[in-house]
């Protein structure tokens, strides 16, 4: 699984043969320049989800329910879920936190597949901070119970973020739904990373669990070269200019 937030990135993910595209609310930081995912709105998710779908029609696409859109009021949450699912043509919605189990159940009963997200849930960073979760015996036991709860509520998949790898392995073994890890070690059923982290594209921080597979920072050199060539009169050369001459025919 890889995040993608727009037409070109989802198209690339599909061309690369990724199994699942996640239109994650991490787009708040990676493409909208917000400080956290808390600023991301339902309209942001609809806008990006629709664009990502246009780039990747044939890939299973999951769209995040943003902060405040789920787990607050059951009736309104459900309305948000229906709109997001319908308008983005997502294959599933991702919802953070075990407290959303009733909504997972309701979505499932109404035909909307849900991917649950436990461990570090970035929408709650104000409470948890951005750090390893479930690092004590009690927290680990709670997480195991929460994982069972979201599966029982109907989740079709579970994302586990920033937890000890042996705990992630145990949860993966004990659940029948696929478990996708990020910062959760190698023994989950799959992995997810953020597009901009993988490609070193406009990101300043590198969390421990991120591996870079490309380097978009070279884009800045390309933009500098373009700027220099225009200033120096090198671009556009004849190669980049239409051959057709018209001024012989024009009275000017
Ligand atoms: O929004 C996101 O990108 C995510 C992943 C980090 C799992 O939720």
How would you portray this structure in words?
The protein is α/β, with parallel strands linked by helices and 252 residues long. The chain folds into 2 domains: 2-215, Alpha-Beta Barrel (TIM Barrel), CATH 3.20.20; 219-249, no CATH class. 39% of the residues lie in helices and 13% in strands. It contains 10 helices and 8 strands. The chain has helices at residues 7-15, 27-30, 42-55, 74-88, 101-109, 125-128, 137-152, 165-174, 195-198, 218-231; strands at 2-3, 20-23, 60-64, 92-96, 114-119, 157-161, 179-182, 190-191. It has an 8-stranded parallel sheet. The longest helix is centred in the middle third of the chain and has 16 residues, at 137-152. It is elongated, with a radius of gyration of 22 Å. The chain starts with a strand and ends in a 21-residue tail after the last helix. The mean pLDDT is 97. The structure holds 3-methyl-2-oxobutanoic acid. 3-methyl-2-oxobutanoic acid is lined by residues 3, 22, 24-26, 64, 117, 159, 161, 182, 192, 194.
Task: Write a concise synopsis of the structure shown.
Pfam families: Pantoate_transf. The chain has 252 residues and is an alpha/beta fold. The chain has helices spanning 7-15, 27-30, 42-55, 74-88, 101-109, 125-128, 137-152, 165-174, 195-198, 218-231, and strands at residues 2-3, 20-23, 60-64, 92-96, 114-119, 157-161, 179-182, 190-191.
């Amino acid at each position: 699984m890889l995040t993608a937030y727009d037409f070109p990135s989802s198209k690339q993910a599909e061309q690369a043969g990724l199994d699942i595209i996640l239109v994650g609310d991490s787009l708040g930081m990676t493409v909208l320049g917000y400080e956290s995912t808390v600023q991301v709105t339902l309209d942001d998710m609809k806008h990006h989800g629709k664009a990502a779908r246009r780039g990747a029609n044939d890939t299973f696409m999951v769209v995040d329910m943003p902060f405040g859109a789920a787990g607050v009021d059951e009736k309104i949450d459900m309305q948000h879920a229906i709109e997001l699912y319908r308008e983005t043509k997502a294959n599933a919605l991702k919802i953070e936190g075990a407290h959303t189990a009733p909504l997972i159940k309701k979505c499932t009963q109404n035909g909307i597949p849900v991917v649950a997200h436990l461990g570090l849930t970035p929408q709650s960073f104000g409470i948890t901070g951005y750090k390893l979760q479930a690092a004590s015996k009690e927290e680990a036991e709670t997480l195991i119970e929460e994982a069972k709860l979201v599966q029982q509520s109907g989740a079709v998949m579970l994302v586990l973020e920033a937890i000890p790898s042996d705990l992630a392995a145990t949860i993966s073994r004990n659940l029948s739904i696929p478990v996708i890890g990020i910062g959760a070690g190698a023994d989950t059923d799959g992995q997810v990373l953020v597009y901009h982290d993988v490609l070193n594209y406009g990101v300043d921080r590198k969390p421990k669990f991120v591996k870079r597979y490309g380097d978009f920072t070279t884009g800045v050199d390309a933009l500098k070269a373009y700027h220099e060539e225009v200033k120096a009169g090198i671009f556009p050369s004849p190669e980049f200019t239409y051959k057709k001459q018209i001024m012989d025919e024009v009275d000017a």
